[in-house]
Amino acid sequence: MTFKPNFETLHGLNAPRKGLLGAACGIVARYPAAAMAVLLGGGLAAGIGGGVAYNAALGARVAAQEAQLDAARDGAQLEINALAARLGELQAQANRLNALGERLTRVGQLSDGEFDFDQPVPTGGAGPVTDMASGELKSGLNQLEGEFAASSQQLSVLEALLFNRELDRNAVPSRDPIANSYITSGFGGRADPIRGGHQFHKGIDFEADVGDPVLSVADGVVSFSGVRSGYGNVIEVDHGNGYVTRYAHNSRLLGRVGDLVRAGSAIAKAGSTGRSTGAHVHFEVWERGVAVNPRKFLGDQRSAIRG
Predict the structure, then answer these.
(1) CATH no. for residue 258?
(2) Structural domain tally of the chain?
(3) Gap between the Cα atoms of 35 and 199, Å rounded
(4) The pLDDT value given to residue 277
(5) Whole-model pTM?
(6) Distance CA 48, CA 56 (A)
């Protein structure tokens, strides 16, 4: 259908007495197809515009939610990193406590296998098991950290006590002055082996070959190294706490005055210098200036072969 303008109709549309609504109704009545096309076109345009606006709003909301998720993930990762750092510190403390425990096991001479710090502690328990809240985990780490600190302090005190006890033990004569030997003459009264008659023997004699190492029986400092009348080549060690040990008739002296010696270290070579009938080690223990029987300080209770 071809739309042909009618002057009368146009005049009617422009007339104020009919108004715009009447004109529109007149056009719809006369030309329904054209009016429908106009209405459909306008509706389609309005629908497209509304859809674009909705999609834009939806996209904005999705972007905002993604930003919130990213922020939440970043916050969770920061919290995990902080917990991982705390865990690393606790692992370091656990390693230190294990090392300290192993050292105390050796110092305390505990039986092998009694305390094995390389094995996990056996644990167990019945269910059910639920998820642990973040706050509960942090509280558990805080408690564990406090327990580690208390245990570390206690073990450090115990280590100091055991160390002092070990120092005291090493400062007291408690070993033989020569390895793999035996006593040939004991402490006290005896017949003089050279001139006969009675003699008070101030020490103990050990069988030895010339050149055998003479060992310090405890930690200490060499207080004399030289020749004494009747003793030949002599070395003496001051162990503190009033104890001094003397090693006589040596073929050679290894320690010099002021040397720090450890228990079991070689300080001389056995010989037969001085007043002696053959190679041996003459060993004396002096306690606060008085010669005492060395037998009670030896590693085991030996019996003299001849006295």
Answers:
(1) 2.70.70.10
(2) 1
(3) 150
(4) 87
(5) 0.48
(6) 12
